[in-house]
Amino acid sequence: MTTIDFTKGHGTHNDFVLVPDLDGALDLTAEQVRFLCDRRGGIGGDGAIRVVRAGKVADVSADVDPDLWFMDYRNADGSVAEMCGNGTRVFADYLRTHGLVTDETFDIATRGGLKRITTVPGGYAVDLGPWRLAREPEAQERGMDSVVQVVGIADPVPALSLDLGNPHTVVALPPELALGRIDLTTAPQVDPHPEQGTNVELVRPVGPGHIEMRVHERGVGETQSCGTGAAAAALATWWWAGRPDDQLDWVVDVPGGRLGVHISDDKVALSGPAVLVADGTVTLPA
Ligand SMILES: N[C@@H](CCC[C@H](N)C(=O)O)C(=O)O
């Protein structure tokens, strides 16, 4: 039996079990991740994050500085995800709180590439890097590339797919539908179905540069927040508005709080809080 240290943290109530693996000696299995994220039988979280040096991870490109800290992100169902926007801030806060990083601006490594973190009042800003429309050229021309069937909405709703390192499908809800009344207990069905799965964001405008969003995360279910999802939702809304040059800053309200998104050229940045809640030890299933 293996007993490990853990830290529980969250970013706008998107919650994670952080597992320090400072020597790169731990190989978390999918079953162990499911146990850690189990809200009744384990610690509980939307995902697990192993804190490990890039040089100790087999699937990190050889040109990445091996001393950088790598965010090894897994969804609650044990699957591997390329990126987690809220996770980057919580990961950054773990590194700074434990003295593993002392700079105010620093890079971390993820499966979705290097991400630059900056400490800001109330939390962290993360340069998520380049984004792209996942399905060209239909999306370019029509601002939509798929339809999504949401439980309780009679007709499929048009949607736009974006790639932020991980996959997102953003759905603009018809104005008459209250976001809070949508049933997200089952995954919205996206047609055509993306082979690698997708996170699905339901958005409604609140005002200029301000949207509200609920999300059904790939590998998890409905969560209180999704950072890359908030960036995708802001980008899609901006795209639908005709990409206005004077509307590059967005506020995204999620059930768990508020996130900021800044669009610049072909890149996007995310800002918001990070909270470390508890430390402990846990014995993993064999
Ligand atoms: N909550 C995250 C995204 C986590 C990964 C996602 N479920 C996926 O499979 O892509 C965020 O804050 O971005």
Structure write-up:
By secondary structure, the chain is mainly β. The protein has two domains: 2-129 and 273-284, Diaminopimelate Epimerase, Chain A, domain 1 (Roll), CATH 3.10.310; 132-265, Diaminopimelate Epimerase, Chain A, domain 1, CATH 3.10.310.10. The protein contains four helices and 19 strands. The strands form two sheets. Strands 5, 6, 7, 8, 9, 10, 11, 12, 13, 14, 15, 16, 17 and 18 form a 14-stranded mixed sheet that branches. It is globular, with a radius of gyration of 18 Å. The relative contact order is 0.18. Bound molecules: the ligand N[C@@H](CCC[C@H](N)C(=O)O)C(=O)O. Ligand LBFN2T5F binds next to helix 2 and helix 4.
Describe the structure concisely.
The chain has four helices and 19 strands.
Q: Return the average pLDDT rounded to an integer.
A: 95
H/E series, N to C? EEHEEHEEEEHEEEEEEEHEEEE
Q: Write out the CATH superfamily name of the largest domain.
A: Diaminopimelate Epimerase, Chain A, domain 1
| Total count of domains | 2
Low-confidence stretches: none
Structural class: mainly beta
Q: What is the CATH class of the largest domain?
A: Alpha Beta
Rg, Cα atoms, Å = 18 Å
Count of alpha and pi helical runs: 4
Bound compounds, please? the ligand N[C@@H](CCC[C@H](N)C(=O)O)C(=O)O
Oligomer: single chain
Main sheet specs: 14 strands, mixed
